[in-house]
Write a structure and sequence with these properties.
An eight-stranded mixed β-sheet has the order 5-4-1-6-7-9-8-10, sandwiched between helices. Strands 2-3 form a two-stranded antiparallel sheet. It has helices at 12-28, 52-57, 64-68, 72-76, 80-96, 104-111, 125-134, 147-154, 178-190, 205-216, 253-268, and strands spanning 36-39, 46-48, 100-102, 117-121, 140-143, 162-166, 195-202, 223-229, 241-247, 276-283. It has eleven helices and ten strands. The chain has a single domain, classed as Vaccinia Virus protein VP39 (Rossmann fold). Its EC number is 2.1.1.266. One of its GO terms (molecular function) is RNA binding. Monomer.
Amino acid sequence: MNYRHHFHAGNFADVMKHVLLLQLLTRLNAKDKPYRYIDTHGGAGKYDLSEAPAQKSGEYLSGIHRLVQLPSIQKRQAPEAVQQYLNLVESMRVEDGRGAYPGSPWFALQGMRDIDKATIFEMQRDVFQQLRHNIRDKRAGLHERDAYEGLLGVIPPKEKRGLVMIDPPYELERKDFPQLVELLVNAYKKWPTGVFAVWYPIKDRPMIERFEKKMSKTGIRRQLVCEICVWPDDTPIGLNGCGMLIINPPWQFAEQADQALHWLFPHLRMQENGGSVAVKWLVGE
């Protein structure tokens, strides 16, 4: 996988990540008190799927493109979490052109309230410049910084409540993500009541099982796993599916995630048979 997210913007993994991100924020909005959203790898904040990187990969064609092409009646039958996502995508497409697609920081700021704040990291200089151009919101603090060392410096936030979205460059990770596990353990020690959402690719099932085993041995409670695999596990391609590990998921999030992913699956899977959806507790209370 190429770290430059413009190649992957709008693919099935982005759809899954952004639908679940919006639902996490919706659940946090259920309480009156403000919260902090922290994005460890913010990217450019906005992408143009008509430009060369997205056109070269074509990944968006089996992701967001499939959903926007659905008849209106099918979109209206989608779960509320999916409808919210599609409505926000359409609002950007109307304003910025049919090739526009949002990144996680943009989605988050749309899902947050006026009383909430965001901290967004991006360490690549050119991508950070794009982020600064695309995200102009007084609620958002933008930081050109490596989140692997920056995250621990900003938690716990003064709001005490909040969500950390972690989607690192996995080609820089090793095997079963030891660097990521270490970050989560240290972050949880500093902010045990925070919500941590970690997106990860599924290319090698045994590696994911080792990652899950490591996480289950950390002593961290309330770990929920959400997965969507658009290809069978034994398909020899670059990306069979993706997952999101959520620590301290808000009340009712698991049920909403299960409903959303089961609706998305038949629209995003790559062949008639095979593939899977799972929402399961890795570690309970």
